Amino acid sequence: MRIPSDLAIRSLHERLAPNPTALDLVHTHCVIVAEIAAQLIARDRLDVDADLVRAGCLVHDIGVYRLYRPDGSLDHANYLQHGILGHELLRDLGFPEQLCRFCSCHTGVGITRDDILRQSLPLPPADYIAQTAEERLVMYADKFHSKSTPPKFLTAATYQSEVIRFGHDKAATFAAMVTDYGEPDLELLAATHGHVLV
Question: Region 94-116: what's the mean pLDDT?
Fold first, then answer.
């Protein structure tokens, strides 16, 4: 598979973003997630395709642009669909499935068919679970930064306290990932990007 360059992915963000504010929010978040993943790869010498991880980080939230209304506001009620929207968008543009899956398989710590049916989630019933080492790392790195207003970095403890509301099984999955990967060093990133760390 030919992995798109950072420049090509940035150009894709620019084409799809409905306005400069959305571009700054989403693209900056994707870059930060890539920085977190790169830090974890370098620190622990993870056996992953680092170029694929970087590309996956840079495209994982591309579907968010499809949730912006004509007035520039974000449709928060349907936000859970952003991963599926991103997967469809990249697929329709001719990107390989291997790259599209970073969009649909990064939300939370994974969404199962059972989750969708039991909670009546607005998603096509299927398992949206990270399967490869690269998908798993992108999903994990994503948990440490939020596109909230204002954007912020999250410690593992903060994310753990948030994910538990989706079930003890989700909290246990995240705790296992923390054990596997450890926590990234977020203080320098927070200072560099001017986002708080909570």
Answer: 97
